[in-house]
Amino acid sequence: MDLKDKLLSSFIAFENNIDLDHPVHEVRSEAIKNFEAKGFPTKKEEAWKYTSLNAIQKVDFSIFPRQENTLEYKDIKQYFLHEIDTYKIVFIDGVYSSYLSETTHDGVDVCLMSAALTKPQYKAVIDVYFNKVASKNESLTTLNTAFSKEGAYIYIPKSKAPKKPIQIVHLATGNEAALMLQPRNLVIVEENAEVQIIERHQSLTGNEVFTNSVTEIFAAKDAIVDYYKVQNDENTASLIDNTYISQKDNSVVRVHTFSFGGKLTRNNLNFYQNGERMDSVLKGVTILGEKQHVDHHTLVHHAQPNCESHQDYKGIFGENSTGVFNGKIIVDKIAQKTNAFQQNNNILISDRATINTKPQLEIFADDVKCSHGCTIGQLDEDALFYLQSRGIPKKEATALLMYAFANNVLESVRIPELKTRINKLIANKLGVRVGFEL
Amino acid sequence: MLEIKDLHASIEDKKILKGINLEVNAGEVHAIMGPNGSGKSTLASVIAGKEEFEIKKGSIALEGEDLEDLAPEERAHKGIFLSFQYPVEIPGVSVTNFMKTAINESRKARGLEDMPANQMLKLIREKSEMLEIDRKFLSRSLNEGFSGGEKKRNEIFQLAMLEPKLAILDETDSGLDIDALRIVADGVNKLRGKENAIIVITHYQRLLEYIVPDYVHVLHDGKIVKSGNKDLALELEEKGYDWIKQEATV
Question: What pTM does this model have?
């Protein structure tokens, strides 16, 4: 049975375990119909030209874990930003782990999607927000919607901010030979509220894991959201991350994506600006080797005047790795005075590495500033000579320059301990001796 | 210390150096002057080992050892330092971290351990004070957004930190106001000693009032066409380079 058929039949089993009378179930039923009609995207579709899901579909994934698994914190501590106190929403093989988590209802809600989707007190919020910004056509998003049951639910009321950052961590034990996960996250940040979230998916063995995740983020007027995605998974773990963001007046949403590992990673990052004077920031550092593949598909839709967006993605590709950057910016006719900035710079350090980069601008307004630039190159020879002339050997100088190239994107990271962590990850990945703090 | 014999160098088949002979002994300061395009900066880059230039003929030796097959970093480890005419901006690497890396790599090449952190800090403090460099400046990205003068002062700071045997100053005076020039020259003069040598490449004689040379050479069309003592620099300042060019054609 291929994966699509398996998923369709699993949906019937899934329905036996959920409340079919809940209004969300109608949403799920619609979604599975869409997935059934569309199936997995193929390379024939423009948006999937450079990323193939064929190999994934040949794997016999378990759609639900057979048993509940446990882990000791000491064994997985390294995957947490443990240097600081945080709220934690932790899942083991897709199942919530209460003893590894630290949730709260103290002024803000940092808890579970399963609760939000079933308990009456959340119904009003779910009615307004659930599946409201996520696509109802894109097949993988609808696949996730169909199976939406568990994930992180974060609600920050007006003018509130949680005391500490929130970590969403998905761990895969490898107790299943191959496991598919479909977390569903909902983040609502009300007027003038603020939140910082770190998300990570980590497989603990070499067994296959395929995660198809959907996150919806709603940033109300004057809200500030910082979302950090740390992607440094095993070479047998694939991730499709579908993130949809709806922004209102004066809000600022920054998403940083750090892609250092995994077998196949696809980031569909979609910003919808539904107000004025707001800022959307999309930044990414991608450093790959071996046969790793990362595909960044970004969309920023400017629908109102006087808004800004800033995209800056840096990529370093070694060995047989492949990268894709497709950055789409839509500026509606009424979205005058838009300032949209997009940059994608890449360095290829191997003859066998590939990068496909494509800016896609659809501008219907006439008084806008839209700049985009993409570069693919080697390192600056003059800079290399300068470092060498100070006694830094070519190999180290090369690594140092790549490090500086990537590191530059970290300036906007607002959690210092996370910045240090990412710095170290970058240094390790590039083999730079960083005997200093930056 | 440095011995250059009949050096011919080209870039992309364009001949730039056409038979340079130069001997620099320990304790000496040599000035190389000449009009634009005469090959001054090329000579500096070739000594430092820039790979774009191809040595067609002749040789460069430091303390008797031929440099041709040595990479730029190996030349640096042997004690050659080039102060760049146009220092490269490197965003993301702070001046301090760059200096730490440079010093420890040089120590590693000599089989030494990393310099202890407190010693490093002391050295940085001492040298930056000597060059009147603000502490804040040291945590900024290397040369990024520096003014012309700041870049040059930063080059001399690196020179002071690395204490090379042979320092080549390529147009270090350009971009410096008179106060900065004095500070930079004082820094260079402190390095002068029996064991070290300095080559000052300059277009004008202004810097040579502060770093007084033992010898002055005039480079024209890839060759040294005239050598003399410091008075030659004054003569050039007065008469310009045209008479040298004429003399050279005759």
Answer: 0.83
